[in-house]
Amino acid sequence: MKHLLSAADLSRDDALAVLDTAEELAQLAERPIKKLPTLRGRTVVNLFFEDSTRTRISFEAAAKRLSADVINFSAKGSSLSKGESLKDTALTLEAMGADAVVVRHPASGAPHRLAVSGWIRGSVVNAGDGTHEHPTQALLDAYTLRRRLGSLEGRRVAVVGDVLHSRVARSNVLLLHTLGVEVTLVAPPTLLPVGIEAWPCATSLDLDAVLPKSDAVMMLRVQRERMNASYFPSAREYTRRYGLDGWRLAALPDHAVVMHPGPMNRGLEISAVAADSARSTIVEQVSNGVSVRMAVLYLLLAGEEAA
Amino acid sequence: MTGTWLLRGVRPLGGDPTDVLLRDGRIAETGSRRNDTSGAQVLDGDGLVALPGLVDLHTHLREPGREDAETVASGSLAAALGGYTAVHAMANTDPVADTAGVVEQVWRLGREAGHVDVRPVGAVTAGLGGQRLAELGAMAESAAAVRVFSDDGRCVSDAVVMRRALEYVKAFDGVIAQHAQEPRLTEDAQMNEGVLSGVLGLRGWPAVAEEAIIARDVLLAAHVGSRLHVCHVSTAGSVDILRWAKAKGCDVTAEVTPHHLLLTDELAATYDPVYKVNPPLRTAEDVEALRAALADGTIDAVATDHAPHPVEDKETEWAAAAFGMLGLETALPVVIAAMVETGLLDWSGVADRMSTRPARIGRVAGQGRGLEPGAPANVTLVDAAARITVDPTGLASLSSNTPYVGRALPGRVVATFLRGRATVLDGKQA
After folding, report:
1. Domain A135-284 sits in which CATH superfamily?
2. CATH code, B4-49+375-429
């Protein structure tokens, strides 16, 4: 595998290889010196056209623990806002000798453009593109689920919230389906994309009907700007119908876990009770993110030399 | 290259081979095996299909303002090479073609270039602002004699402004050519709204945003007894509305682009902005409906929506790229592939949809008059058996944003005659 652009790029074996590699690399975090020499001399560029401190530092920590040189390139003010074009930024990185480019971009498909354009030779890792995908988030979610639940095949996961604008939801549906998980998307009808019946998942408009049958519930962040665009009448109504409050938390089976990709709107899509409960994997997801991103960089870059 | 031409052995509208004599700007005679060739230049047209010169209702020549993308001279040469003898130049230039001065400038540049008749389209509203009518009468009475008015690129979405425009142009037999796109339903829209837009995370441009405007406009046109033309129809639902409106007797005409007859939204999965166009590429079912509608006459005309853009406006991420694709030099091959090779349209049908009807809709004098003796000698000769492979560097257009790169398409334009003068010979500028 040369690039990671979409969760759909991963076969079941590819995905399991990432998760298994992440398990091995996670043991490193328990050692006093959290570093492997694997990617020494390789350069990983974090190219962020959109602010996302948590994703950037997660990739940065992952690359550094593998001894790669890390360059952080914050390029807010892309061609969308009349700055330097994506092409010129890419050519600059190529001239600097980037082995891998981790790209976050507000435009769907921008990592795809970078990967197929011929502007750069290195591997491209999609760290979130517009409303398209965020495949490493799905990998870390699958990793977290497997650790908590023991297995993935046949498990039921509810993904709740703004599916329409969520790259996390798209990548999770694709990856979890590949791994044998039954995904149900739950959202108000305004926040489900047209054509969703073709996705490899179920959908529901009724959170209360779905929760008792779920092994995990993944709450999606509600963007503030959706409130003024008639997707739902008010924040309070959203919370009443689709928020994970204490009552709904209690409706989950005993073994079920609560996930959120962060950053959370406490009191909107998730209550403090749910976020801070023992079922919550939210902090684990962050530390697992580093292990999974190490695995991705390792498999993309270390594998390249062998080939 | 002016003077008398004898086109030997050509097949008018794909019929039996005959000779066609062009003299004094008119088709002088047709008939078999003339031996007297004195004074005439002879073109051995053995087996070439002869069509009346093609007429395009919808091109963007970009001049004035974006001469880096196209000029009247380069775009009209591209048109001639594509078999056209007349094109309508859209009004969304900079400055906008909303005054007699600008339309006369475009018209004059077209005359000076001399490749085709350039018919400027006037803006419906001042500055394409959608608020206030442009001086439609002044443009109609100018030397450019504008008859087609359009805010193309933007929809005349205000129902009152649209109504007034439809009414007003009756005074000079004009027509409003509507770019049907409900603006609120298509804010920041990037591609056809459907399964694929959801998967790709690209904001959807729903079919209903086109259909709702067409439905409103046919009702408005019927109410005020005006003529309406619908630009670049792209959905099966629009076809249904047009069919209904025509059955009710509304004076409505419509056009479809070559790309909407051949390409589908699946191409957006490449995220390559060469496939980004407005209205967007639709589904295979829409393509089928559009072909059927063009075949049965519900859609009257093929119009290119030739939309040149410089490389830097396409070599970007999808959302940042400009909408539009080239069309003039590939329109006829695409129509042959989509309509002729599929058996949906014969050559006289092609002539009707690409010459006769568009000329009638645009009220273009001296164009679209067929190949009978006495008609103006606007003739296109096509080698229907040849296939072309589209090379973006070999186009006459200043831009290269063709979606057909590397594609083999049927039919090659061999020669074009404008009022008896060869503008294209052997597939090259004459």
Report:
1. Aspartate/ornithine carbamoyltransferase (3.40.50.1370)
2. 2.30.40.10
Pair type for strands B228-230 and B175-178: parallel
Q: Please state the domain extents for chain B.
A: 4-49+375-429, 53-362
Say whether residue A155 is in contact with chain B using an 8 A CB cutoff: no
CA B283 to chain centre: 21
Task: Sort out which chain A residues have CB atoms less than 8 A from B316's CB and list them.
Answer: 79, 85-87, 113
Chain B partners within 8 Å of A105 (Cβ) = 317
Report yes or no: A131 at the B interface, CB cutoff 8 Å: yes
Cβ neighbours of residue A141 under 8 Å, at least 6 residues apart?
A168, A172, A175, A176, A218, A259, A261, A285
Any bridge partners for residue A292, and if so which? Answer: none
Q: Which residues of B touch A107 (CB under 8 A)?
A: 317-320
Instruction: Say whether residue B346 is in contact with chain A using an 8 A CB cutoff.
Output: no
Which residues of B belong to the active site? 305
Query: Is beta strand B428-429 parallel, antiparallel or unpaired with respect to B421-425?
Result: antiparallel
Q: Which superfamily does CATH assign the domain made up of B53-362 to?
A: Metal-dependent hydrolases (3.20.20.140)
B13 alpha-carbon distance from chain centroid:
20
pLDDT tens digits, B199-252: 999 999 999 999 999 999 999 999 999 999 999 999 999 999 999 999 999 999
Residue in B201, B312, B318 closest to A167 by CB: B201
CA distance B305 to B256: 9
- Among residues B75, B77, B80, the alpha carbon closest in space to that of B63 is found at B75
Find out whether the peptide bond into A37 is cis, omega within 30 degrees of 0: no
The B residues from 316 to 335 touching A (CB cutoff 8 Å) are 316-320
Which of the given ranges, A71-85, A152-166, A212-226, has the highest pLDDT on average? A152-166
| Å between A45 CA and nearest CA of chain B | 19
Count other C-beta atoms under 10 Å from residue A85's C-beta.
Answer: 17
Give the Cα separation of B235 and B232 in Å (integer).
10
Tokens of residue B83, six digits: 């078999």
Alpha carbon distance B159, B148 (integer Å): 19
Q: Which of A80, A82, A112, A162 to mutate to test the interface with B (most CBs of B within 10 A)?
A: A112
Task: Give the Å distances, CA to CA, from A292 to A19, A43, A115, A238, B304.
Answer: 7, 18, 21, 33, 50
Complex-level ipTM: 0.94
Does the beta carbon of B269 lie under 8 angstroms from any beta carbon of chain A?
Answer: no
pLDDT tens readout for residues B123-176? 999 999 999 999 999 999 999 999 999 999 999 999 999 999 999 999 999 999
How many whole angstroms separate alpha carbon B282 and alpha carbon B184?
20
**Per-residue pLDDT tens digits for B9-32:** 999 999 999 999 999 999 999 987
pLDDT value at residue B177: 98
Class of domain A7-132+286-306: alpha beta
Confidence band for A85, pLDDT divided at 50, 70 and 90 = confident
B310 CB within 8 Å of a chain A CB: no
Contacts of A79 in chain B (CB under 8 A): 316-317, 320
Query: Residue B312's closest chain A neighbor by CA?
Result: A85
